[in-house]
Write a structure and sequence with these properties.
This protein has one domain. The chain has two helices and seven strands. It has helices spanning 9-60, 160-164; strands at 88-93, 97-103, 107-113, 121-127, 141-145, 167-171, 175-179. Strands 1-2-3-4-5-7-6 form a seven-stranded antiparallel beta sheet. Strand 2 (97-103) and strand 3 (107-113) form a beta hairpin.
Length: 182
C-alpha cells in the first residue's frame, strides 16, 4: 500500500493567510496607481488646453468662450460640471473627471474629479486674474476644492500630496493649492 501525500488543513490555512496578507498590501498600491493614472490623463488634458488657450489669446487678443474655438480635439464628450455652474463657459467630462473653461473675472481652466475617494481634487490654471491669491497667474496647480459642485471631503493633502506628490502652496476660501513636483 502506498502512502498518499496530502496537505493538512493547517498548511492550507497558512497559504490562504499569506495570500490574504499579500493582497491587502498590494491592493492599496494598485488603487493609488489607478488614481494616479486617471489624474495624469486629466493633468495632460489641462496642459494641452492651456497651450491652446495661450495660442488663441496670442492670435486674437482675447480668451476663448468654448473649447470649440481651440485648435485641439478634446476627447471627452460628457457635460457634467465639476466645479461651479455659474461661471462655466464650456465643460467636458469623461465620467471620472470634468474639465471647464470658466470666467469669474479672469480666464480659468479647471479639472475636477467627479467621484470616488478623491472627488473634488483637481488642477487649476488661472490667467489675467487679480486678487490676493496664494498662487500665481498662468501656473498650473494641483487643487483640493472647498467650494462648488464637488467639494473635497478628504484630509488636506490626500489627493495633491499623496497621489500627485505636490507641496502645499496656500489656501483661499474655495480651494487649497499645491505646487506640482515637475
Amino acid at each position: 500500500m502506498k502512502n498518499k501525500q496530502a496537505f493538512t488543513l493547517i498548511e492550507l490555512l497558512v497559504v490562504v493567510l499569506i495570500i490574504g496578507i499579500l493582497a491587502s498590501v498590494a491592493l492599496p498600491q494598485y488603487t493609488k496607481a489607478v488614481e494616479k493614472s486617471r489624474a495624469t490623463e486629466a493633468l495632460q488634458l489641462v496642459k494641452t488646453i492651456d497651450q491652446a488657450v495661450n495660442a488663441y489669446h496670442l492670435a486674437s487678443g482675447e480668451y476663448p468662450s468654448s473649447f470649440d474655438e481651440l485648435a485641439i480635439d478634446i476627447p471627452w464628450t460628457g457635460r457634467e460640471i465639476g466645479y461651479a455652474a455659474g461661471i462655466v463657459k464650456d465643460v467636458r467630462s469623461n465620467g471620472n473627471w470634468s474639465v471647464q473653461l470658466e470666467n469669474a473675472g479672469c480666464q480659468s481652466i479647471i479639472a475636477t474629479r467627479l467621484d470616488g475617494k478623491y472627488k473634488g481634487g483637481g488642477f487649476l490654471v488661472e490667467k489675467n486674474c487679480s486678487g490676493s491669491y496664494p498662487w500665481n497667474n498662468d501656473e498650473l496647480y494641483c487643487t483640493e476644492f472647498l467650494y462648488g459642485n464637488n467639494i473635497f471631503s478628504g484630509t488636506a493633502g490626500d489627493f495633491c500630496t499623496k497621489i500627485i506628490g505636490a507641496s502645499f502652496k496656500g489656501q483661499s476660501s474655495y480651494l487649497r493649492a499645491y505646487t506640482l513636483p515637475f
